[in-house]
């Protein structure tokens, strides 16, 4: 049974609004009357803004069955998106610390990541999470894993030959190395399906907390804006560097709780794969990018830090909720 057929089983509908701005954006997109967005209301809160942004970015991914594809480049929609992106980028830059002093690139980068301290969701998964908690985690993570790596593909045309070749080597793996059953997104869908969870893309968007929306939106924002290409690749490098060990812990946690082999397989695949990807992403992708364009150094670290910080924020929230 192919993932495409499974995904075809459920239409991809636009999400439920979370405030006046996301309501206005959804109304405009569903009706096609986008000129109303000229005086769109301000967002009520971060969640409202992030959901509106997520909806607009999804037009560039799989789209929605209840929104016309003609609106992907609608100038009124892009006007709202641009405003939200500017606010979001400013917030993220304010959160990020200064980049470390330049030295040997790979050594400095690996030290930067290793020195980062944050709450560990994977340790909780490994040892003490309940089945209900893990199922909630999988539903949240499905928003990204079902379109895994697509945001990095957007960066490819903006890179020089050597960096492009290295990104494609990594992406070839993420996309199954020629085998449609081995696409990481498909493996995750198979894992959800085997776990009696909905594997249709976006099925759980209405329960995604704001931290998950921010995580997904930052990947789209970095991928879709050429000037943020270094942040996108820095994000990738930190993401890959912090994936192998947690993936092993999560696989062991899933095994402890008796999850089906398809779900475990997704994580065990990442233990090996991401140990290779981190070397590629740090040395051959970011390292070479910085040699070619030293001015992008700070943005590589901005992206890397953002990757770790957004995962920390999600971990924080879930550990707090689960402890209550
Ligand atoms: Fe992957
Ligand atoms: Fe990877």
Which helices and strands occur, and which strands form pairs?
Elements: H1 3-8, H2 20-31, H3 46-58, H4 75-95, H5 105-114, H6 121-127, H7 131-145, H8 150-153, H9 161-174, H10 184-194, H11 210-224, H12 229-241, H13 244-256, H14 261-292, H15 297-323
Helix pairs in contact: 2-3, 3-4, 3-11, 5-14, 6-13, 7-10, 9-14, 10-14, 11-12, 11-15, 12-14, 12-15, 13-14
Bound molecules: fe (ii) ion (2 copies).
Structure notes:
It contains 15 helices and no strands. The protein is mainly α. The protein has two domains: 83 residues, no CATH class; 223 residues, Heme oxygenase-like (Heme Oxygenase, Chain A, Up-down Bundle), CATH 1.20.910.10. It is globular, with a radius of gyration of 19 Å. Bound molecules: fe (ii) ion (FE2) (2 copies).
How many domain regions? 2
- The CATH topology annotation of the largest domain reads as Heme Oxygenase, Chain A
**Cofactors and ligands:** fe (ii) ion
Look at the helices and sheets and give the structural class.
Answer: mainly alpha
Biggest β-sheet description: none
* Continuous helix count: 15
Low-confidence stretches: 1-8
Q: What is the rounded Rg?
A: 19 Å
Give the percentage of residues in beta strands.
Answer: under 5%
CATH level-two architecture of the largest domain: Up-down Bundle
What's the count of strands? 0
Summarize model confidence as the mean pLDDT. 96
Question: Helix coverage percent of residues?
Answer: 55-70%
CATH level-four homologous superfamily name of the largest domain: Heme oxygenase-like
